[in-house]
Amino acid sequence: MMLNYDYPLYRPPSEARSLIFQVTLGCSFNECSFCDMYRSKEYGERPWDEVKLEIDMMAKQLPDTQRIFLADGDALNLDTEYMVKVVKYIKEKFQNLERISCYAMPMNILKKTPEELKRIHDAGLTMFYLGIESGSDVILKKVTKGAIAKTIIKAVNKAKDVGYTMSCMVILGLGGSKYSKEHIRGTAEVISACSPNYVGALTLYLENGIKNEFLTKFGEEFVPVSDGQALVELEDLISQIDVKDDVVFRANHGSNAYTIKGTFPQDKQDMLDKISWMKKHPEVIRPKGLRGF
Prior knowledge:
Layout: E1 19-22, E2 24-25, E3 44-45, H1 48-61, E4 67-71, H2 80-93, E5 99-103, H3 106-111, H4 114-123, E6 125-133, H5 137-142, H6 149-162, E7 165-172, H7 180-194, E8 198-203, H8 208-218, H9 227-240, E9 247-251, E10 260-264, H10 268-280
Parallel strand pairs: 1-4, 4-5, 5-6, 6-7, 7-8, 8-9
Antiparallel strand pairs: 2-3, 9-10
Helix pairs in contact: 1-2, 2-4, 6-7, 7-9, 9-10
C-alpha cells in the first residue's frame, strides 16, 4: 500500500528522493502570478489522524528513509503546536533521518516568533525552501509576491539565526527586458544581505495556464528577455553578489538556457570565466524544447 497523494504534488529538485507527507494541501496565499502550482487546489490543513496513519504506514514500509519533505506549498502555515507534534512523531518513527524540510513563505516565517521557530527546529524540521524571486520591490509588486525585499531579508535572517538551513530561489527574466538591471541589482542585494546556504537560479517560464494572469498583473507591456539577456542577467547577478559566508549557487534548473554552478565567495571568478566562455560557445545552450519550469 502506498500513499494516496492529492495531486498535483510538488517538491524541490533536491528532494527528488525524499519521502513526502502532505500535511497541508495547496497554498494559503496562491496569488504569485508566475506560479500555477496550486491553482487547481483549495488550501486546507490535513487532520492529525490522517497524517499519523500515513506516517505509521510508511515507517513500516520505508523504515530507512533519510529525507522527508512536508508538502504542499505551505506547511509552515500550520499552527506551531501541530507542526511540532507532526515533526516529533516523524523523528520518533524514522530512526535514520538526515533532515526534514518544507517550503516556507517569508510571511509565514515572520508570523512565527523566534521561540516558535526554535521549537519546530528542535523538534526536527531543519531546512526551508524560500522563494526570493526578485529583490526589486517594483517587480515583487507586479508579480504579486506578497513580500518586499526588506521582509524577505528579515525572514531569511530570522530563520538562519535559529539554525535553519535556507535554500532560496530567484527567477531570471522576471522583470522582462525593461526591469532587467533593476531586477538583478535588487536580487544581488537581497542575497548579499542574508547569505542563504543555497541559491538556485531559475528562468521565467510562463505556462499557458498562468500567462494571461501574469501579463495582466504586470500592468504594462512585458517583453521577455532573450537567452542572451538571461545569460547577461546571470553574469551580472554573480558579479554583484558579495558574501563572506559560503553560498552554494546553482543555475542548473530545467528552465535555464545555460548551466552554471559554484560556491561563493571562492568560485565567483571561475563562474564568471565560464560565462565568458559560454558567450563565445552558443552551442552549449539547452534547446528550448528541453526546458520547463
